[in-house]
Specification:
Structural class of chain B: mainly beta
Low-confidence stretches of chain B: none
Shape of chain B: globular
Order of helices and strands of chain A: EEEEEEEEEEE
Order of helices and strands of chain B: EEEEEEEEEEE
Shape of chain A: globular
Helix content of chain B: under 10%
Radius of gyration of chain B: 13 Å
Number of helices of chain A: 0
Strand content of chain A: over 45%
Number of strands of chain B: 11
Oligomer: heterodimer
Strand content of chain B: over 45%
Helix content of chain A: under 10%
Distance between the termini of chain A: 37 Å
Largest interface: A-B, 21 and 23 residues
Number of helices of chain B: 0
Amino acid sequence: EAGVVQSPRYKIIEKKQPVAFWCNPISGHNTLYWYLQNLGQGPELLIRYENEEAVDDSQLPKDRFSAERLKGVDSTLKIQPAELGDSAVYLCASSPGVTGGQTDTQYFGPGTRLTVL
Amino acid sequence: QKEVEQNSGPLSVPEGAIASLNCTYSDRGSQSFFWYRQYSGKSPELIMSIYSNGDKEDGRFTAQLNKASQYVSLLIRDSQPSDSATYLCAVRKDSNYQLIWGAGTKLIIKP
C-alpha cells in the first residue's frame, strides 16, 4: 500500500514569492492534516480536513496561507507571499477515520523542506 | 507550561542497554497517546500507541501509561545504534481530538 505522497520534497524561493505544496493521502483515509515543523520542535497543526471540509483551521495564518482539498482526496497548501520565517518542513499526514475516533492514527508523508531567502 | 513536555536530551545510552523516554501532559481528560520516531531529515513514523493504564509491549518497545500521574513513557530494550533518533510523544486532547505534540527527545545509542 502506498503511503502519503508529497511534492515537492525541497523548495527554495525568495521572500514575497508564492509557493504551493501538494499532498496525496493514503487511499481511503478520510482525514488529512497539514503540519509545520521547525528544527528541534514537534509538528504544529496548520489545518485538518475531514473529507473535503476544513474542520480545524484555527492555527492557519489566513492572511498568507490557504489550503484546499477538492473532492476529499488530494490537498494543496499555498503560501502567498512567503516570508523568511516560513522556512520549515511542511508535513502532510492522513488517518483512516474521522478524528473523533480514539484509535485514529496519523501517518506522515516525507515532507517538503521550504527555504525562504 | 507546555501541554506535552519531553526532555529534549540528548539521552545517551550504551548499545544493549534499556533506553527510557518520558513524557508528561496537562490535559487530564486525554485518552490516546502515541510515540513516534523521527530520524534526522525524515518524517515521524508511529512506534506505539497506548490507550489504557499500564504497559503495552511490542517487540523491544514497551509503552507505559499512568493517567493519574499524567505521564507516558517508552522503554526500548536491547538498544541498537539504529534506534538513534528523536522520539516524539503525541497526546490526543479529549476536548477537540487534536493531537498535541511534544518537542521530542533526541536519543543516541553508543556502540
